[in-house]
Amino acid sequence: MILHIIARFHVRAGEEPSALAALRAVATATRQEPGCLDFQVVQGVRDPRLFHIHSQFHDEAAFDLHAELPHTVRFLGAMEELIDQPREITRAERVE
User: CA Rg, the chain, in Å?
Assistant: First the structure.
């Protein structure tokens, strides 16, 4: 089973550049993890303060390891300072 992770972050007005910098940094590091199959960041068109990450990992263990790595912990700490709504992180699997 491939594990899909969908994360949602809504940042305060004016924090978009800081959020993008944090997202780009974590994306670069995460894509190099052996358990990561894909890591995409998207920004809302109608609401540019809304960001989603869609990532794919080999399995739950790969994602659990990712969640503990220093670059992930730093990223989540940085985003906590920027968001104006609770973050949402969903673990999902593809439905045929």
Answer: 13
Average pLDDT over residues 6-16: 98
The pLDDT of residue 40: 98
Q: Kindly indicate the confidence band of residue 71, based on its pLDDT and cuts at 50, 70 and 90.
A: very high
Residues 68 and 1: beta-carbon distance below 8 Å: no
Q: If phi over 0 gives left and psi between -120 and 50 gives alpha, with beta otherwise, what is residue 58?
A: alpha
Q: Dihedrals φ, ψ of 95, to 5°?
A: -110, 130
For tokens 């994602």, what's the residue? 63
Q: Are the beta carbons of 8 and 50 closer than 8 angstroms?
A: yes
DSSP for residue 7: E
**In Å, how far from its chain's centre is CA 75?**
9
Q: Answer for the pair 62, 14: CB distance below 8 angstroms, yes or no.
A: no
